[in-house]
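Suppose you are handed only these lines of text.
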Amino acid sequence: MKVVLASSEAVPFAKTGGLADVAAALPKALGAAGHDVWLVLPYYRQLSGPLESTIHPTDVEFPIELGSKSVQARVFRSSLPETDVPVLLIDQPDYFDRPGLYQQDGHDYDDNCERFLFFSRSVLEAVARFEIRPDIVHANDWQTGIIPALLKIEYQETPEFSSTSSVFTIHNMAFQGSFWHWDMLLTGLDWKYFNWRQMEFFGNMNLLKTGIVFSDMVTTVSPTYAQEIQTPEFGCGLNGVLRGRGDSLVGILNGVDTAIWNPATDPHITENYDVNSYKTGKSVCKDHLQQAVSLPRRSDVPLFGMISRMTDQKGFDLIAGCAEDVLQEDLQFVFLGTGDSHYEEILKSLGDRYTDKVAAVIGFDEMLAHQIEASCDIYLMPSRFEPCGLNQMYSLAYGTVPLVHAVGGLADSVIDATTENIAAGHANGLSFNEYSPEQLAHQIRRAITLYHDESAWPQLVSTGMSRDWSWNQSATDYLAVYERALHSREAASQSL
Ligand code: ADP
Ligand code: GLC
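From them, the structure of the protein bound to adenosine-5'-diphosphate can be written out as follows.
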């Protein structure tokens, strides 16, 4: 199968969240299974530096028409590290040579619509010029949501895309790429598509909706989230549109890129370990982390960790609501993240007031993220909603017991430590339903009790570490979706 994956971020080139991990891991897994996969990304400023030596110019360049403007795109070429998966990088310094990927100082760039329409059109133009002739173009999130529409409306008749189907993956319904209606002019598409069934949503042009409506198959990143987003509570207004896709909407749980997230080989952690040696390995890592973040070096205290965008999605309102209460217990917290200044301030203030219990690191730090995964005893992920979530899976692989709110991918990967689940050998974490600070406080206390239970705790740790969290299964599921997209394209195009 020949697949082009278009994404606005991918490790190690550029990352703000889990999309970057997925957009690199899936092509790697498909490539390893013998498929011909190409990844296309914007050439951001963040690619300069150590990565630059792996990036080479090509002689491919072309103009992209955006309304009355013509903007030049240049294509550079690289590959995913330690693979032969080619990466095409779309260069236009006016759009991508900026301090942030999507925003600066907490404010989205005003021209985000224009930037990513430019990127999306460039993906198709580059694919045509490299004569890839893909079976599948796989677009991800609103930034590339226009691609399925462009394919269906403009490109399907061209020889380069005559047998190409589209797959669109929703990583988060909360980000929809909703822009004022005049931005329709930048798409180059006819106004007739600006209607409530296709690109319009509450008077705006909505790029997430566009991707959902025009793609041959739609996926999202866990089976539970695929169900949840068809309800008003989680659908962010698009639940009806999603229900309209029927069984063309499929949930596939993300995996773990074991070349990057593996405690046995991770170069960022103090001591490598596996399921047989985690006790010593984790305690060496814990000691080092406690020292690094200036917490008392105690092996007997339960250490809770969290690495996250600091937003409402991730449950920081619950943490803020129960922190003073649970800090009466004998425990330690280490938080790493950036995001809403409101939450950054709350965490910094907890760190200042509880110096022997809370370490709050505000920033984005890849190495520290690995060390937290390896060193902590419990990983906190009380997300209000979570399409998939990667850190709970990294935690399971690292023997760090996750404590999660049972939504989306958290419900699909964490099995609660009930007496029955422990007895059956299935339990791998703690999971709760009621979204309230009192419930989180209760679960944190429950985790402390379990942590001191010398029979249950090792079982939770080893159950998590023993399961295969790699991308193999998910990549197979994506291939099945690609097959279905190839078959359904014909039928879908007739219904337009
Ligand atoms: P989301 O994509 O919603 O932010 P995920 O759990 O899918 O959540 O993925 C988050 C990814 O971003 C993980 O790889 C996590 O380790 C990483 N990450 C988030 N915040 C930081 C940070 N401050 N420093 C380093 N890595 C971070
Ligand atoms: C989004 C979601 C997260 C998911 C990630 C990768 O950022 O918030 O739950 O794991 O995409 O699919």
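What can we learn from it? The CA atoms of residues 11 and 484 lie 28 Å apart. Residues 17-18, 21, 307-309, 336-338, 364-366, 369, 388-391 surround adenosine-5'-diphosphate (ligand 1) (CB under 6 Å).
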